[in-house]
Design goal:
Blueprint (H helix, E strand, L loop, with lengths): L4 E4 L1 H13 L5 H16 L10 H9 L11 E5 L3 E5 L5 H19 L1 E10 L5 H9 L3 E9 L18 E6 L7 E6 L5 H10 L8 E2 L5 E2 L3 H4 L5 E2 L4 H17 L16 E9 L1 H4 L4 H14 L15 H13 L1 E4 H13 L4 H8 L2
Parallel strand pairs: 3-4
Antiparallel strand pairs: 1-12, 2-3, 4-11, 5-6, 5-11, 6-7, 8-9, 8-10
Helix pairs in contact: 1-2, 1-13, 2-4, 3-12
The protein binds nicotinamide-adenine-dinucleotide (NAD).
């Protein structure tokens, strides 16, 4: 049965979630970075990476070798334009932010920077990091692996062998919103199976296999044992991109790759980021002119009936954000209860949190 939906005002929800994040023992800056990042994921329509992650984070905090509050990034290696960073199991929202500030500074100085980041808790919506780079006028490319349960099956394989390994590219566009291409290489993000399960709805055919490797639409096979696996997008090509994300985001980052010796009970990410200053590479404003001309040309393709027409990557998120700022952030009752239960486990006054969100 479909669960009841709440529509929380973004600002009220943000204040409520700050109270929950304080329960992790976080310093004020960490409370702000974690809360803003999660609320932004909800605002941009990625509920799978929004406040619904908090119960998972609370479990991870309590686990040995899980999430560490108030950790900060440090250098593992430093070769100027090539840097390797360690996240010390800290909140991805903090470590990702600190790492991007370092990478952006290096790319501004040298024109480019290759940055690897390992040993970091969930980096959440990778597009948030691309948005930081594009706001600084830089292109950024991200290959990410996920150190958790192996929930995605390889092409022609019948069980999970790796995570939803996201890939992301951010490109600044002069005078316009940036292009932000940001997706899981699984046909759907894992959190979307949790969202569907909590809402009591089925997945689309072709997204999931059950514990016997057979097609299913029941999200339970991605949420509870006996586990099945999510499929990669784009058949063998998507599988290839997942594989590359694992090798570049995992093996190269000083983190780890997901194999039988890996720890499956927490969500860590590894990320390889490539930052490029387009002004140093393209001359005579050519990058700006050609980008604008191409984006206009693509948008002029006639809309297929029943669609809103061509959208550029990043546009759906901007549209959803504008709509949710107007009419509220939808949170289903099951997810809200899971968040309140997690808050309780952290010693937070849940009645106060609930009242603040409904304000
Ligand atoms: N940290 C992690 O471990 C982890 C793992 C997996 C996914 N994620 C995140 O989950 C989020 C959701 O991933 P997803 O795979 O569900 O995303 P998705 O399937 O919604 O795809 C999103 C991308 O496709 C673009 N897009 C969507 N509709 C479009 C349309 N009609 N026309 C043109 N472009 C369109 C969006 O602008 C965006 O770039 C991402 O932010 C990703 O970074 C994180």
């Amino acid at each position: 049965m479909a669960a009841t939906m709440h529509y929380f005002n973004a600002r009220a929800l943000k204040h409520a979630i700050e109270e929950v994040v304080k329960g992790f023992g976080s310093e004020p800056t960490e409370v702000e970075l974690v809360t803003n990042n999660l609320i932004e994921a909800n605002l941009t329509g990625h509920d799978s990476h929004g406040i619904g992650m908090l119960p998972r984070y609370a479990l991870s905090l309590k686990e040995e070798n899980g999430l560490k509050a108030n950790a900060h990034v440090s250098f593992r290696v430093d070769h100027g334009t090539m840097i390797g960073l360690d996240g010390h199991a800290g909140f991805g929202q903090v470590i990702g932010h600190e790492a991007m500030l370092i990478g952006i500074e290096r790319a501004r100085e040298h024109g480019s920077c290759i940055m690897s980041l390992g040993n970091v808790h969930h980096l959440c919506r990778i597009g948030a990091w691309a948005e930081m780079a594009t706001a600084a006028g830089l292109i950024s490319i991200h290959f990410v692996n996920v150190m958790s349960k192996p929930v995605v099956a390889p092409w022609d394989g019948a069980d999970g062998r790796f995570g939803t390994n996201p890939f992301c590219v951010g490109i600044p566009v002069a005078g316009r919103a940036p292009v932000i291409l940001d997706f899981a290489t699984s046909v759907i993000a894992q959190g979307k199976t949790r969202v569907a399960h909590n809402k009591g709805i089925q997945l689309k055919p072709g997204q999931l296999i059950d514990n016997h490797g057979q097609p299913t639409t029941d999200p339970v096979f991605a949420v509870k044992p006996p586990y099945g696996a999510i499929k990669t997008f784009g058949e063998h090509k998507g599988f290839g991109l997942s594989l590359v994300c694992e090798l570049l985001g995992g093996a190269l980052s000083g983190g780890a790759t997901l194999h039988e010796r890996a720890n499956h009970s927490r969500v860590f990410n590894g990320m390889l980021t490539i930052l490029i200053d387009p002004d140093r590479l393209a001359q005579d404003n050519l990058f700006v002119q050609e980008s604008l001309a191409f984006l206009d040309w693509v948008k002029q393709s006639p809309a297929i009936e029943g669609t809103e027409g061509v959208k550029i990557a990043g546009e759906p998120e901007q549209q959803t954000k504008a709509e949710r700022l107007r009419s509220g952030i939808p949170v289903d009752e099951n997810t809200w209860q899971e968040i309140l239960n997690a808050a309780k486990s952290l010693g937070v006054d849940t009645k106060h949190v609930d009242a603040m969100a409904r304000n």
